[in-house]
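Appendix B. Chain record.
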Amino acid sequence: MKNKVILLILDGLGYSYARKLMGNLEGWVEAGDAKVWQGQSVLPSASGPCYASIHTGLTPQDHGVTSNYHQGRLENADIFSAVKAAGGTTGAVAHSFFSDYFQSSPFNHLRDMEVDDINRPIQHARFYTMTGENKAQPATPSDIDLFWQMSLVIQRHHPDYFLFHSCTLDSLGHNYGFDSIQIDKNCYTIDAALGDFIPRWQEQGYDVIITADHGQSARGHHGGTEAIMRDIPIYYFANPNHPVQGPAPDHVIHQTAIAPSILQRMGVAIPESMQSTPVWT
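Structure tokens predicted for this chain:
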């Protein structure tokens, strides 16, 4: 592989909130050690459709995931399958939706919750379900624990592509509204942890990309067309030995460009189904 890549999806973290609350990430941008662009989600700006679009490079109208109620593995090429076809290895710490879409469906706890199998699309995976989620109990795993779980998988297996996905901010936004002290405090917690983990991952040879599936309104809603729901951050921390070339700082990256751009950066052949022009070299 030309470059190894970690993609972190912080569910629900809209562009404007990221730029004002994520002080560590913004500090690296200000120092010139990272780049940031505004991204735009697909429509509907809902989690399932966005997860599928980020990894297939297709719109929901093309890949078929048009709501969070979709169940079933997708037939389209995706980042995981492309990396595996190129002889690379993949990993994930993420919600079970990603297993259902890209690994096997329906999700089976005993078969799919922990995976170490080189024959599967996501070869080294740890999934969670948030079963029993409600306002009194969001059922979101600790982000710090997930970062350590991810780091353990990377240490043991050194995958070429790794997906990290956290639902914490999205769940808190739904319960309290995104313009809330709960969101402020949890952005601080995640940002502080990333201050420790990003250098660790870079030292292990990874590019680190941080984005979101969608944004969220002040009262905790998304799915529609408003900018607050669609605008997302895309932070890029390149391996210091392999600087990244990207578009102008004011370029808005459409979500369907993320998959082909990651594959191009990795030196992996881009599937014909991914029609968006890559933005990173």
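Further analysis of this model is presented in Appendix C.
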